[in-house]
Amino acid sequence: MAQILDIITTAAILYVVCAGLLIVFGVMKIINFAHGGFLTVGGYSALLVTKMGWHPWWGIPVSFAIGCVCGMVIERLVVRPLYARPLDAILATWGLGIIIGQLITLGFGREVQFVQSPVRGAIDFAGASYSQYRLILVGAAIVLGLALSAALNGTRLGLQTRAVIMNENLARGLGINSGLVRFITFTLGAGLASLAGALITPLSSVDPNLGVPWLVGAFMLVMVSGMSLVSLAIACLVLGGAQVLVSTYGNPVLGGLTIVVLAALLLRLRPQGFARE
Amino acid sequence: MNDAPAAAAAVGVNAVTPRPRSDARLVLGLAAAALVLVAIGPYLLPDFLINNLIRGFLYAAVALTVDILWGYTGILTFGQSAFFGIGAYAAGLSFTHLGFGLGIAAFALVGGIAVAALVALVIGWLAFYHGASPLYASVITLVLPIIVAQILYSGGTFTGSSSGLSGFESFDLSLQIWFWIAGVFLVVLTSAAWLFVRSDAGRVLIAIRENEPRCEYLGINVSRLKIVLMVVCAIVAAVAGYAFACVQMVIAPEYAGFVFGTELVIWVALGGRGTLIGPVIGTLLIDTSTAYLSGSLPFIWKLVVGLAFVIVIVALPRGFAPLIGRVFRPRRAEADARGEVPMLRASAKPARTDRESAQTRALDLNAVTKHFGSLRVLDGIELQADHGELLSLVGPNGAGKTTLIRCVSDGGERSSGSVRVNGHDIERRAPYQCVAYGVGRKFQNANTFDALSVAQSLRIARSRLQRPSLWSRAATLALPEGALKVMQATGLDRMLGVEVRHLAHGQKQALELAMVLAMEPSVVLLDEPTAGLTRPERQLIGSVLVELTQQQRLCIVLVEHDLDFVREISSRVVVLHQGRIVLDGTVAQVVESELVRTIYSGGSAMSGAHA
Amino acid sequence: MTGNALQLNRVSSGYGEALVVRDVNLSVAAGEIFVLLGKNGMGKSTLLKTIMGFLPAGGSIKLFGDEITRAAPHRIARKAIAYAPQEQALFQDLSVEQNLRLALLDAGAFQSGLDRIGAYFPFIPQRLKQRAGTLSGGEQKMLLVARALMSRPRLMLIDEISEGLQPSVIEKLAGVFRAERAQTKTAILLVEQHVRFALAVADRYAVLKLGEIVERGDVGEQDAAAHIIDHLSV
What predicted TM-score, i.e. pTM, was given to this entire model? Predict the structure, then answer.
């Protein structure tokens, strides 16, 4: 039982961490390597909330807002000139990640710090005792997935965004400002990454390089998911599940490699990954 | 008929064959100067700096491999650190567990090289399969250092885990000697790399970066070339790593990791990708400054490097080196124009083995079908063509003309059916293998190498038949008669040194045609070779094509929209409509056909109502 | 309404350095249907893409007197131009309704727009939830025209709408264009290879050959059809 819960909660955490990256990749076809930096920003936003003495739940809106602001500035200054050069965009956003990490180091110091968790302790769940916060994250992932789907499928902006994903020139010919759609998307992606950073920090701690270990795994999951939120969920469950199993029955180091290795092989054999076509 | 000598005379072939050219003298001069600096360095510099520069030299050697892979060939790699780490751990592990001795040192070096080469082979196989995206290749090079580092972390006391290995015995050499060793290593490596990238073979790397599909269709096995390059670069990085472990006698998993891999890319970007010297100087400057400044301004310095990196990527994709280089540029460009242009001559008459033309069909398509999902673009195409035929393929948009060309030139394209070229079944073979059977394909829009000169582009088209030199540039360029004619007819023979990006569109079209003919194909597929050309240019190209069919017995398949042009030059016309052949006959038959009239003025649906 | 809906002055454009359209002068009056004929590869579609701002243009393009040369496509589209490209013209994975909604700048205008196009194409209001990619070829073309009409455009650019269609559907579309022109005074620029259809709906025509206009005239003239066929035949 605990193992199934481990798999589900791990997948949920991965989903939360990847969602912003997926949205940016889907619309803009560029890999945002500053995603790790945005996760870190979110972690420190949560720390800030703790230090100000606010209730830890405030970390969610605060981190989202700060992430969005970072995203807006970066899209205008750095990402916009690189749409036509996707490999350079990876490099530039990686450089941004370094800058964010160093700015945080300058502002907060390089030591490991702890964020207050909004809820503590374990609860009994289906006969086993399990961390309450991890279970809450499952809920968060579901809410996030549903909210994003609803936004994409139910709103006018969402419809326009899907149009830009499917056929950008056709969308422009219908009067849709694809530049604005990209701007909003990157902003949202940064906000979601930062939000994810705030959500995962209570599980461990914050330090200026908090985002880096997550980045590569998230990147690989997005690569195998194509552009769909549903395939991302499947990818998180399958690969995240494999990671939990390998860590338990194999060894933790191999477990840490599970996602990247499986994803790389999967892409070699089936370039579209978990996406349908 | 053989007027090749006349063609050769027209472009001025002398009895004297000029010697191949290389930059050997220039490189030797610069290398000698650099070696002098290396020789006197230890006497002038403080110990701290000597130590730093040894490390810098070795890092720069790895940065050089990143520049070859990324700057020249376009493979963005984060994985060179892994090979550096493999070399370093080969030394560290051997000396720690087996003790130090010259035999063991040699064993460690050979072992490190072997493991690195093997890993590079696997990575190459994964990353460079036919049709792999550049992004996927980068993903693989990103995964590699992560895996290597994780393995090192998890090696317990054997690899020393996160604290790495230290305190092992190594060569008993002074810092000064190591400085010389590392310095000479770097100078020799840079010189060799310089000669290589400026050689005829080195231009192929740039051609791959500029236009990989065109390379494939010129008969170059791009995947294998990239894998070989990857293996060589891995070996160089492993040797640098080995030397690093021997000097420093401390190694840690970070040296094999992904962050170090990205740092290498940053140094190359800042120094100027695709310049060799830029990345070397960039690495030395940044690594040395980091050593000095990370003490006094630890975080600010890294911030500055990060900022500079982002600015360079966004605004100065070629790095800082070209800015400095611009001062010297005019003089060099002039030298290029004078010294770099090879002399054009006619190639020896090919000993045609595919002149089985008498017995075998040039082209034999059997039930060729291509569908995308439920949409049938080609439906059971049966088509035969012989040598000496100029066959035009006409039909409205979406009739499947270009798709048919694609199915003949790439075995992986069709959904079913068979294609035989000069009697060879192309099965599922890649484009470069179809080229070996005699296929030459010209794309719809001028598909050339913008960054290369006219002569260099043609040289690359010849590389399958004439192996290019790895260190020098041939002084003559031998072309078959057909290619020479196209060059002369369009005046390209007087523009050999001009970079392709500066050519007019019509000249690019002509150049691509000359490149295709330079491969000495016997089945030539031309997809709208005259699109965007003026009328006189069309006529010129048309007459060359007719001549090639009649005198050299080529089989030419021409896709054309301009029916006047088709009428003038074809010996046979095939009309394609909605994926099927609706008519196959002479020009006169097609011109008189009511069916063709109908297709062109209103679609088959209105055929009944046609006036 | 007076003056020209569309005015092209010495317009040239192409892909990269290849000029596909050279020095084209052309005007379409408000309430006029103008057809541009020519064989494949002669620059007809390129000209439409140039008007829509997808390709860099030389010369000048004016829309109801406003200079739109080199403006961004979405800005041009918002000046009440409806563009129906020849290929990949619909969002195949979106529903009929979503395709229609994407053409509207004002979401509130959906119902009135739907009523209008429902009068021409009764099947559309009944099948709003169907995926556009699952419609038949003819239905997709009708949806394309319907989407162009949704936004009550002042100028429509329609690229080879008749290609591959049954005669009955072609007749229907011809009727729609004529009716719309009569009712709303919209200007229509058609690109066509289908001579009979073109002559049945248009007021004026021009023939494009190798990117240049080689023939132009009124459809009413006696030998118009003969002139055109002459240019188009093999």
Answer: 0.83
